[in-house]
C-alpha cells in the first residue's frame, strides 16, 4: 500500500484507530476463578519441571506459592506469561481465554503483569518519569501519541505513587532509591497498566526487615481489586498469611492456610524437613 493509500485509509470516517480500540478482552469470571491451570506438564531433557500441575486462583485473591529450590514455581509463572511453552495441559484466564494460544505480548495486554526478582527501573530517570514511561509503553493507551500528560494520567500516577508509598520521592532519580524502594517503583510501573493478575517473584529478597513488612502490606492492599500471586519463602508468606500453595517436584503438594500447611504431614516431610 502506498503512503497516499495508507493515509487515505487512516482518514476514512469509519476508521477506528488502533489506539482507540478496546484491547482488553472481557474476562469471564462467572465461576469466581480468574486463573485455571490444569494438567500442566513440562520436561527439560527428560527432567519433569512441571508434573501434572493443577492450580486454580480466584479473582481478587492473594495467593502465595512456596516450594524448595527447583520445585517449579518460576517455570509455572513462565508458562502462564507465555515465556515458556509447556508440553501439555491447559491454562485459561477466566473461563474462555486460552493463554496457551497467546504470545507474551498478548498475555501482558490481557492484563497479566509479571514482576521479576531483580528490579529493572530506569535509574537515570526520576520516579515520576519511570511511571510515565511505563504508561507510554503500554501501547493500548492513547498517550503513546501525545507528548503531554492529561489530568487523568497525572491522577493515575499520583494514585500509584500513593499506593507504593513513594509520593515524597517522586522527583528523586530512581538510581538513588533504596533496593526496597526500587522494587516498589517497579510494582508501581506494572500497576500503571492496571493489571488484573500480578505475578510477583521473590519480592522481598535483599530487603531490610522493615522494607519486607511494607512490601507485605503493599501486596495485601493490592489484592481484592486485582489478583496477586507471590512466589516466596516461608517466612515472608507467614507474614502475609493467606492461602498457600506448596509446590514439590513440579506438582501441588498441599494447599491451604498457613496453619494447615504447617501441620500437613507431606509438607513437613518433604519441604519443611526438621524445622516446621
Ligand atoms: N530452561 C531450562 N532448562 C533446563 N532446566 C530448567 C530450565 N528452567 C528451569 N529448569 C529446571 O526446572 C526446575 C524447576 O525450576 P524453577 O526455576 O521453576 O524452580 P523454582 O521453584 O522457581 O526454584 P527457586 O526457588 O530456586 O526459584 C529446576 O530443576 C530447574 O533447573
Ligand atoms: Mg524461582
CATH class of the domain at 61-73 and 112-272: Alpha Beta
N-to-C span: 67 Å
Strand order of the largest sheet: 6-7-8-3-9-10
Ligands bound to this protein structure: adenosine-5'-triphosphate, magnesium ion
Query: Mean pLDDT, as a whole number?
Result: 86
**Computed Rg:** 21 Å
Number of strands: 10
CATH H-level superfamily of the domain at 61-73 and 112-272:
P-loop containing nucleotide triphosphate hydrolases
Spans where pLDDT lies below 50 across 5 or more residues: 15-23
Q: Percent helix among the residues?
A: 25-40%
Regarding quaternary structure, what we see is single chain
Largest sheet, described in full? 6 strands, mixed
Key traits:
Rossmann fold; alpha/beta; binds adenosine-5'-triphosphate; four-stranded antiparallel β-sheet; globular; 23% strand
Describe the structure.
With 276 residues, this protein is α/β, with parallel strands linked by helices. The protein has a domain of 174 residues: 3-Layer(aba) Sandwich (Rossmann fold), CATH 3.40.50.300. It contains ten helices and ten strands. A six-stranded mixed β-sheet has the order 6-7-8-3-9-10, sandwiched between helices. It is globular and about 55 Å long. The chain starts with a helix and ends with a helix. About 3% of the residues have low confidence. The structure holds adenosine-5'-triphosphate (ATP) and magnesium ion. Adenosine-5'-triphosphate (ATP) binds next to α2.
Amino acid at each position: 500500500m502506498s503512503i497516499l493509500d495508507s493515509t487515505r485509509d487512516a482518514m476514512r470516517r469509519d476508521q477506528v484507530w488502533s489506539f482507540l480500540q478496546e484491547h482488553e478482552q472481557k474476562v469471564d469470571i462467572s465461576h469466581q476463578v480468574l486463573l485455571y491451570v490444569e494438567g500442566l506438564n513440562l520436561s527439560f531433557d527428560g527432567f519433569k519441571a512441571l508434573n501434572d500441575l493443577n492450580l486454580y486462583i480466584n479473582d481478587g485473591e492473594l495467593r502465595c506459592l512456596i516450594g524448595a529450590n527447583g520445585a517449579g514455581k518460576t517455570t509455572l509463572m513462565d508458562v502462564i506469561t507465555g515465556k515458556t511453552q509447556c508440553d501439555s495441559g491447559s491454562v485459561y484466564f477466566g473461563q474462555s481465554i486460552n493463554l496457551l494460544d497467546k504470545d507474551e505480548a498478548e498475555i501482558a495486554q490481557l492484563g497479566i503483569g509479571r514482576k521479576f526478582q531483580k528490579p529493572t527501573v530506569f535509574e537515570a530517570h526520576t520516579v515520576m518519569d519511570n511511571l510515565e514511561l511505563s504508561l507510554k509503553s503500554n501501547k493500548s493507551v492513547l498517550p503513546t501519541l501525545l507528548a503531554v500528560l492529561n489530568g487523568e494520567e497525572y491522577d493515575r500516577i499520583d494514585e500509584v505513587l500513593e499506593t507504593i508509598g513513594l509520593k515524597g520521592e517522586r522527583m528523586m532519580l530512581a538510581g538513588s532509591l533504596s533496593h526496597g524502594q526500587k522494587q516498589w517503583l517497579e510494582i508501581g510501573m506494572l500497576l500503571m497498566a492496571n493489571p488484573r493478575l500480578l505475578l510477583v517473584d521473590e519480592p522481598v529478597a535483599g530487603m531490610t526487615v522493615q522494607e519486607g513488612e511494607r512490601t507485605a502490606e503493599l501486596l495485601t492492599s493490592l489484592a481484592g481489586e486485582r489478583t496477586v500471586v507471590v512466589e516466596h519463602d516461608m517466612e515472608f508468606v507467614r507474614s502475609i498469611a493467606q492461602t498457600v500453595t506448596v509446590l514439590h517436584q513440579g506438582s501441588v503438594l498441599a494447599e491451604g492456610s498457613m496453619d494447615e500447611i504447617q501441620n500437613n504431614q507431606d509438607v513437613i516431610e518433604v519441604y519443611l524437613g526438621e524445622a516446621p
